[in-house]
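Quick start: what a row looks like.
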Amino acid sequence: MSAFDDRLQRRVLGLQVRLYACCARLSAGTDGEALHDLRIALRRLASLLRPLRREPLCAALEQAVTVLNRASGPLRDIEVLAHELEAQGLSGPAALRRDCLAEAYVELLAGVPLRGLMVRLDEWPEDCRQARRHGQWRARGKRVARHLDRLARKLAMALRDPAHDRHRLRLLIKRLRYCAEAWPAYYQLEPARLRSLRRAQAALGHWHDHWQWLQRLEIETDLGPCAGIWRQRLLDAEREADLALLELCEFFPQVPAQSR
């Protein structure tokens, strides 16, 4: 096994262990950060695999991660909303959402998406060994480097688009940051550049939360008391996000050359 393959296998195993731990915490029902940490582990696993998706095994495992990520995403949105409602003093609406979450956690833990991912993770080491034995495994570090270079170029271009879409920029920033953190040997993120990426991601996340909550107002009428403050916060978040994106431009002054 090459050093690259060994590094990949160890990281996948480490994230599998982390996922098991998060599931145990979520099942216990006493840890408010369990689902959040589970989704972070899913994000790290997806970022590790995405540059290698031309490998069928990597593509299949990444797809299983995506399915669970989609299943768990709405639950995390409700968690964040419930926390916001509590902060606004709306204990009744917050409690209603927390009651729904308790049942949803049980369904998630027993559901097909989680079981499907765990089966693939259990089979992953042997599947990889078989692929290497039959000459069907071609994952290389060069693919990771090319993928990261493409992400950086896309972000540099999107930052300079006068009609930029904040949703797309948020996605591009997250993909570049997490993939670079998953594969630090193939893309150097200096501390200042990493801080700028994190600042932009946080600002866009703050904007996205309020944008999303305002979309719920027409259906979830008990959110009405928050409408005014959310609209003002959305405007503030837009300004904060735009400043963070302007700063980020300084760290991506031109479209990076494909050097690998």
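That is the whole record. Residues 141-260 form one domain. The radius of gyration is 20 Å.
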